[in-house]
Amino acid sequence: MAIEPRVIKFYETTLRDGEQTPGVNYFPEEKLAIAQALADMGFDTLDCGFPVSSPGEFEAVRMIASKVENADVCAIARAQISDIDTAWNAVKIAARPAIQPFIGVSPLHREIKMGKTRAEVLEMARVAVAHARQYTENVDFALEDTTRTEYDFILEVCEVIIKEGVRFVTLCDTVGIALPWEFGKLVADVKREFPQCRISAHCHDDLGLAVANALEGLRNGAERVDTSFNGLGERAGNAATEEVIMAVRTRSAALGLDVHVDTTKITSTSRLIAHYSGMEPQWTKSIVGKNAFAHGGGIHQDGVLKDARTYEIMTPESIGLSAADRRIFVGKLSGRAALAAQMHDLGYDLEREQLDQAFQMAKLLLGKKKTLEELDMRYIAETAQGRTNIA
């Protein structure tokens, strides 16, 4: 009997860690629009912001809390009583409020950033969870810079916050230094020591491994993953929401995992966030880049025109595009099949000899300019058909 894949949860942090991307600044109405789009996709928890950071941030989080009913509305806080109180005041009107205090646990964060001992950090974590639990059962706690922290201290912090009733323990690769097998082992070790512990995996992309680390965390027992749309976030960004979703959906059987979010809204949500953030994904970005369903090499184009499955592992429709959004790009590396398809789309069905002539003309022209525009294509087609004279 086949084992049903385990459905993972999401802590979607586009509105908080994503907004920490240098150069990004959402107005409250923009944050609300993004929050509603994320909630409508089916994400479990929305990390909406850091209310104590400014009055405007407090009001933005409170606005989301007053409007969004189909997801947990979470605010983060330092492991300080006043921060936690402010976070709660921002989200308490939500249908599903949540708080996530955090504290740096590595030697660098303890000693250099905060000037605290292990014992002091441990007590601050315990008090933070205990205080937040007076307000709500939906209290998560993040161990900032977990992957550069002594193993025994990670377990000490986990033990005290689990005793205080924490909902999720977030293990953070804050600086993106972990390798996938290292992060997977960390999650597995914590899960083995505390089987009742619900773990969330928070990974950054400094070495380009955020999604790989997140997947290894999930494979090794994490129930939830922290992600940000378009890979936004501090420095090189966070694990990209759309990449984690489609990796799990496309390789569900191999991973033993699945998602319950609406993948057909990926493109519209990505574009909404790109618009408000002012940061377009790079063209070759997985899933949502302009070239994600574009083909430039002749051999690839010939295969895709015969059957898209030859070079595509997912369909444009699966992320909210249409088959018409699949682009066959005519460039200097393209083949006759691509040129014939483009000509057909423009209303020209060329015979073999005409296509050969058009192909040679296209190659010559691409030696003088980077791309062929529609007027170029029409000129080539009509010349090959003898409708115009070459001047």
TrEMBL record:
UniProt keyword Amino-acid biosynthesis, yes or no: yes
InterPro entries: 2-IPM_HCS-like, AIPM/Hcit_synth_CS, Aldolase_TIM, LeuA/HCS_post-cat, PYR_CT
Transmembrane segments: none
EC number(s) on file: 2.3.3.13
Enzyme class name: transferase
Domain Pyruvate carboxyltransferase: 8-267
Gene3D superfamilies: 1.10.238.260, Aldolase class I
One Pfam family from the record: HCS_D2
Pathway terms, separated by semicolons: Amino-acid biosynthesis; L-leucine biosynthesis; L-leucine from 3-methyl-2-oxobutanoate: step 1/4
Keyword annotations: Amino-acid biosynthesis, Branched-chain amino acid biosynthesis, Leucine biosynthesis, Manganese, Transferase
Family statement drawn from the similarity comment of this UniProt entry: Belongs to the alpha-IPM synthase/homocitrate synthase family. LeuA type 1 subfamily.
The protein's name in its UniProt record: 2-isopropylmalate synthase
